[in-house]
Amino acid sequence: MMSFLPRRPFRLTIVHPCVGRRPGEKRYVRTWQMEPLPAAMLAALAPADIEVRFFDDRLEPIAYDQPTDLVAMSVETYTARRAYQIASEFRRRGAPVVMGGFHATLCPGEVAEYCESLVIGEAETLFAEVIDDYRHGRPQPVYRATSRPPLTATPDRSIFRGKKYLPIRLVEFARGCRFHCDFCAIQTFFQATHSHRSVESVIGELRQVSRAKQMVFFIDDNLTSGMDEAKELMRALIPLKLRWVSQMAINGAFDDEALDLMRRSGCVGTLIGFESLDPPTLHQMNKQFNLMRGGAREAVANMRRFGLSVYGTFIFGYDHDSPDTVRAAVEFAHDEGLFIAAFNHITPFPGTPLYQRLESQGRLLYDAWWNDPRYRYNMIPFRPSTMSPEELTSLCIDARRRFYSWSSIARRGVHAVNRRDAFVARNYWAINAMHRWDISGRNGLPLGDANWRGELLRVGGSAVAQELVKR
Fold it and tell me: 222 and 359: one domain?
């Protein structure tokens, strides 16, 4: 009699690459160790009958020698070099690699050199097809999304079991942003469009995954890009009695109905990209809307009226910036009692108007800074027009030191909004202390693992993939 052995399940390995490691370093930066939702989304989009393994390069060694039928990675610009190292290790062992994510869409020709298949755009309508093609031995070099997909999948967080992430729950409501900021890769990737999940699916997910006293972070690029939908979500959040934070544009700070709903639904505060207090710089950023209704100072005052804290971000290196610009931003952040703040130089991400302008002006210091072995995290990859790269770096670090000095933390801590209850006050001191510790902790971090001694493997015949990418 003929015996039939059961077919083994298809084996998918999902990897989340880290940014990089210094020589001899094994421990990774703790402040970056949040749940990687893109990996959980890939697991959710995979067919139910396949075997999924997940490795987080920030937390654990990758088991390269475990047999697998396909390796999948979502690649960001900062993780691209490390992703190519990981892909080379798997491909050296005969395992094919598929890459997607922001960087794969922004730099498809480059990424295509390091993987068998490339996913351009969002993966919702494509990933099941990728798996099916590999199952049947007919993989395509390029899979391209032709439109924005419906956001119906819920992340499969079972892949996170046993891994020690920061105690904050990440949830996605919407993707994209309708603004056209000069420096923003988000608007390039999504072509300044915005889409969202149904409120019912988000509430259902929160009922399953949220825990008492655990902060929820809505990772939306701009929660209020679709204001009506955001308000609908906030109304539905009220009965859940959560504590949550998110990111929004400055226009949300002038919508009293939205702010009231945020307060009632458990919002503790939001990140607002002020970026600059200088009107000519905001115009160059294509972010002149930040000047609306009195600008940043009035926005913070209105947030305070509703008991909401502000995480303000500032970026420097535009053509009108100077040491006085940086000092003014730090003084503003002090005086207004921002919960936390970021003071960073601009980074020209590929595909953005900023990158294209600097490239056309011959001001980029690297052909592709994210893939250059000389580049280190927080280096300036371009020539500023009013100062040297070294001076700009020093100004940003000094701004962080001043803002996260103990005297500044204590001064800002007395603001009522930063001590509105015991939970907020406790987190204020803990988060500010963490940022103080990390003022320059990431400076000089190589992109890619400096301990890796392998050889980057480029895909043979990748010219075919690149030709398809151009179509």
Answer: yes
Residue with tokens 């940014």: 19
The larger pLDDT score, comparing residue 6 to residue 301, is at: 301
Please state the separation of Cα 250 from the chain's center in Å: 19
The answer to whether residue 445 sits within a structural domain is no
Residue range of the domain that includes 427: 157-437
Please write the tens of the pLDDT for every residue from 93-114: 999 999 999 999 999 999 999 9
Model confidence band, residue 464 (pLDDT cutoffs 50, 70, 90): very low
pLDDT at 2 over 90: no
Is the model's pLDDT at 213 over the cut of 80?
Answer: no
Residues 132 and 209 in one domain: no
Q: What is the pTM of this model?
A: 0.93
**How many domains does the structure of the chain reveal?**
2
Cα 148 to Cα 39: distance, rounded to the nearest angstrom? 19
6 domain residue, yes or no: no
Half-sphere exposure of 263 (CA within 13 A, CB side): 16
Is residue 186 over pLDDT 80?
Answer: yes
pLDDT recorded at residue 195? 86
Per the CB < 8 A criterion, the answer to whether 104 and 117 are in contact is no
Quick: pLDDT tens for 11-68: 999 999 999 999 988 777 666 689 999 999 999 999 999 999 999 999 999 999 999 9
422 and 455 housed in the same domain? no
Q: What is the dihedral of CA 455, 461, 464, 465, to 10 degrees?
A: -30
User: Token pair for residue 103?
Assistant: 């960087």
How many residues are recorded in the chain?
A: 471
CATH of the domain at 426: 3.80.30.20
Reported as a single tens digit per residue, the pLDDT across 408-455 is 999 999 999 999 999 999 999 999 998 898 877 678 889 999 999 999
Specify whether 273 is located in the same domain as 412: yes
Q: Is residue 227 part of a domain?
A: yes
